[in-house]
Amino acid sequence: AQSVAQPEDQVNVAEGNPLTVKCTYSVSGNPYLFWYVQYPNRGLQFLLKYITGDNLVKGSYGFEAEFNKSQTSFHLKKPSALVSDSALYFCAVRPRSGSARQLTFGSGTQLTVLP
Amino acid sequence: DTAVSQTPKYLVTQMGNDKSIKCEQNLGHDTMYWYKQDSKKFLKIMFSYNNKELIINETVPNRFSPKSPDKAHLNLHINSLELGDSAVYFCASSQGGQLNTEAFFGQGTRLTVV
Questions:
Q1: Measured between alpha carbons, how far is B80 from B85 in angstroms, rounded to an integer?
Q2: A75 vs A67, A69, A111, B82, CA distance in Å?
Q3: Could you read off the pLDDT tens digit of each residue along chain A, which spans 115 residues?
């Protein structure tokens, strides 16, 4: 069975500082990995995904994520945080084969960027 | 043009009632999902349909019944609502044959059972 862990429920960072939101996964083989963001009272919005190739993936709004196979991690990063980045972030995994098409999500990390 | 739309956005109802949530996607996707987000924001898959066929049915009470009249629609009907059903329900869609594609989510339906 596939699973995703986001070890931090809450991450606080000052505006202008770099941010990292952590994600580790457990799945057979190499999965597809995704990050989504949820603003208050809104649905989930896709940020970026890892399929293959370069381990550093760039996505929307200046976010990027680094795939690390040996550590089974896919941490979300941004060089300079904005107050508007404050939201709930979800990491998700989907296996490359099999009948399971659904995304399995982590428990979410609330990011607060302080002005 | 909204890609995945759910109605209603808010639903307040009494215990024991039956209610439905509708979902439509205009992305041409062949796979649709229902997710439940609980009060702690945890997202859990409930159902998945591919080309109108049920392919995932997680451990969900049989009071919940999905119905897919066509590839663009996946409705969720809930019988005999209970307090514990209060949550936000998200519909999503993706192109099922392409596992590397992202899913698109609706805005959610906040269900409150009183």
A1: 10
A2: 7, 12, 13, 38
A3: 788 999 999 999 999 999 999 999 998 777 899 999 999 888 899 999 999 888 999 999 999 999 999 999 999 999 999 999 999 999 999 888 766 667 889 999 999 999 9
Position A50, amino acid: Y
Within 22-61 of A, beta carbons closer than 8 Å to B belong to: 32, 34, 36, 38, 41-46, 49, 51
- The tokens describing B52, both together, are 């109108």
Tell me the count of A-B CB pairs closer than 8 A.
59
* Pairing mode of beta strands B104-105, B109-113: unpaired
**Tokens standing for B113?**
């059972």
CB A9 within 8 A of CB A21: no
Calculate the CA B108 to chain-centre distance: 8
Chain B residue at shortest CA distance from A30: B100
Please indicate whether, in this complex, the C-beta atoms of A32 and B103 are within 8 angstroms of each other. Answer: no
Condensed to tens digits (0 to 9), the pLDDT of residues B35-88 reads 999 999 999 999 888 888 887 777 789 999 999 999 999 999 999 999 999 999
